[in-house]
Amino acid sequence: DLTPEEFPDQTPHLRLLLVARDVKAFNTAHKAARKANPKFRLDLTGLNLTGTDLKRADLAGANLKEADLTRSNLAGANLREALLEGAILVRTTLASATLAGANLTGADLTGVNLADADLAWIDLTGAKLAGAILSWSNLAGANLAGAKLAGADFTGANLAGADFTGAKLAGADFAGAKLNKWTKGLTAWQLGGITK
Description:
The chain is mostly loops. 12% of the residues lie in helices and 0% in strands. The N and C termini lie far apart (56 Å).
């Protein structure tokens, strides 16, 4: 039997499946690669997937640093604990996606759709989310320190324990959002319409 370290690297094959937009085959192969080697982390650094339909893709734990996912469809995708620092996700659809524990530090998510997404404990430090739709998303424990959130829609979002310290929030909509005593960085003026 081969040890996990002796399995051949599946990254080139998995990259080809993504570029070919074969999500079903990709999910099966990615799951097998992770099962064979629990330490396997798919490296998609800098990959250009602009306009790609990756609905329900399983990219859990993948390294997508500096990747370009502009106008891609990742609705319902699993990006749990993925690394997306500096990635470009302008006008990308991530509705109902799972990004819990993902790192999107400095990423450009201008106009992104994250409605009903699981963003618990996500790191969005310094990210650009101007005009982003985050309605009904779970941002419990999320770090949005220094993020650019002008015009972002947080309607009905769970903001319990989220950190907005130093974030730019001009025109952001917090109607019906839920927070708790650990939510940081929001002023009394911004809290108008928020439920406790």
